[in-house]
């Protein structure tokens, strides 16, 4: 039985830069479609959130993903940073919800373990593995690589036929 191809939008949320990447799941290997970074450093406060939301809506409308895979927020030492990141992540989740795109969440450790083989891998290792797994001619930018890694992580979990409710609860496999 041929499995239907799915477009997976991976997102690495950020309050200054949000990475995104889209892969199409394949029978054997996922195919790279696009990746990039939403840069909002020049904006402040609510303008940043507005720009992130509008950009994410444009990406969703243009590429019509079947699912969004996004990194969960981990606890920061600085509460202000956690709140700012949470706000950016909130508008990203809202954009997906407004477009009826299902959302799957993965911890950074889950993503790195799936892509690199160790949960505390360096960003350079993630970039290297994403480049190799997707057969890219150039190494993706850090935030885009993290987003693509999130999409690849979801593709891997789905290819194993793992139950989505277990994944969203962070069950170890």
TrEMBL record:
The protein's Enzyme Commission number: 3.1.21.10
Classification via Pfam families: RuvC
Gene: ruvC
Lineage: Bacteria, Pseudomonadati, Pseudomonadota, Gammaproteobacteria, Thiotrichales
Binding site for Mg(2+) 2: 71
GO MF annotations, alphabetized: crossover junction DNA endonuclease activity; DNA binding; magnesium ion binding
Active site: 12, 71, 143
Protein name: Crossover junction endodeoxyribonuclease RuvC
Cofactor(s) for this UniProt protein: Mg(2+)
Compartmental location: Cytoplasm
């Amino acid at each position: 039985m041929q499995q239907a191809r799915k477009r997976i939008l991976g997102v690495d949320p950020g309050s200054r830069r949000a990475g995104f990447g889209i892969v199409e799941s394949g029978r054997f290997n996922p195919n790279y479609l696009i990746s990039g970074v939403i840069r909002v450093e020049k904006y402040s406060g609510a303008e940043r959130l507005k720009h992130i939301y509008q950009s994410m809506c444009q990406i969703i409308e243009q590429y019509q993903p079947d699912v969004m895979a996004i990194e969960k927020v981990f606890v920061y030492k600085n509460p202000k940073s956690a709140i700012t990141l949470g706000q950016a992540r909130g508008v990203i989740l809202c954009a997906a919800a407004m477009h009826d795109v299902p959302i799957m969440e993965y911890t950074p450790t889950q993503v790195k373990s799936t892509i690199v083989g160790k949960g505390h891998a360096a960003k350079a290792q993630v970039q290297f593995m994403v480049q190799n797994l997707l057969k890219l001619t150039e190494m993706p930018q850090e935030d885009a690589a993290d987003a693509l890694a999130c999409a690849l992580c979801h593709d891997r979990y789905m290819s194993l036929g793992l139950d989505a409710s277990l994944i969203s609860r962070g069950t170890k496999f």
